[in-house]
């Protein structure tokens, strides 16, 4: 397996590998084309988004500016709304369901690193380019249909936010959120059901 395959399999991989840089540069060019289109021109933005986001995305509303690594790993469902300032660190898949509301400055972070520094920064191999290694581990994120992610929330690697769940503003979500529950805080904790 190559670095890209290891990344999508959730295995430790060289996060700064050249093979990944080429894919990131392609995404940056597609993002620049999307950013050049006014936010209120939904048909043109959806056409441009098809070059950046995963197949099966949309139609959705995504307000610029936003940050994205690869794009091809992010699927945003129908009638979802993503406010300005979103960050998609998509070293693995980020799946956002249908009719999801995402507040401003929300971060979806699939990448993490080994805890031990010697595992994070192992000695370089002779063929390394650049001549050092940063080890990443990327785990998928899923936000199910009709969830609402409040402003400034951070969704961390491997998390699933359940159907119709609500994540409060500024929450740091480290564990799965059950369907139809409200969570908030750092780390996010269950406050109540959406039906209470």
Structural class: alpha/beta
Question: Strand tally, please?
Answer: 19
Strand order of the largest sheet: 2-5-8-13-16-18-19
Q: What is the arithmetic mean of pLDDT?
A: 95
Residue fraction in strands: 25-35%
Report helical residue fraction. Answer: 10-25%
Shape summary: globular
Sequence-ordered SSE layout with sheet pairings:
Layout: H1 3-8, E1 13-14, H2 18-35, H3 42-49, E2 61-62, E3 67-68, E4 74-76, E5 81-82, E6 87-89, E7 94-96, E8 101-102, E9 107-109, E10 111-112, H4 117-120, E11 135-138, E12 141-143, E13 148-149, E14 154-155, E15 160-161, E16 166-167, E17 172-173, E18 181-184, E19 189-193
Parallel strand pairs: 2-5, 3-6, 4-7, 5-8, 6-9, 7-12, 8-13, 9-14, 12-15, 13-16, 14-17, 16-18
Antiparallel strand pairs: 1-11, 10-11, 18-19
């Amino acid at each position: 397996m190559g670095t890209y395959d290891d990344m999508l399999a959730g295995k430790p991989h060289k996060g700064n590998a050249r093979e990944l840089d080429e894919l990131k540069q392609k995404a940056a060019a597609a993002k620049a084309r999307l950013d050049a289109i006014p936010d209120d021109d939904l048909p043109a933005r959806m056409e441009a988004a098809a070059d950046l986001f995963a197949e099966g995305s949309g139609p959705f509303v995504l307000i610029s500016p936003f940050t994205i690594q690869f794009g091809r790993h992010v699927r945003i469902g129908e009638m979802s709304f993503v406010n300005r300032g979103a960050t998609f660190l998509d070293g693995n898949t980020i799946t956002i369901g249908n009719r999801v509301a995402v507040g401003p400055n929300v971060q979806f972070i699939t990448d993490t690193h080994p805890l031990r520094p010697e595992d994070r920064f192992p000695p370089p191999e002779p063929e390394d380019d650049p001549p050092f290694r940063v080890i990443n581990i990327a785990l998928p994120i899923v936000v199910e249909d009709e969830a609402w992610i409040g402003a400034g929330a951070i969704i961390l690697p491997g998390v699933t936010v359940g159907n119709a769940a609500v994540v409060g503003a500024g929450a740091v979500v480290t564990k799965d959120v059950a369907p139809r529950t409200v969570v908030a805080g750092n780390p996010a904790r269950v406050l109540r059901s959406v039906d209470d």
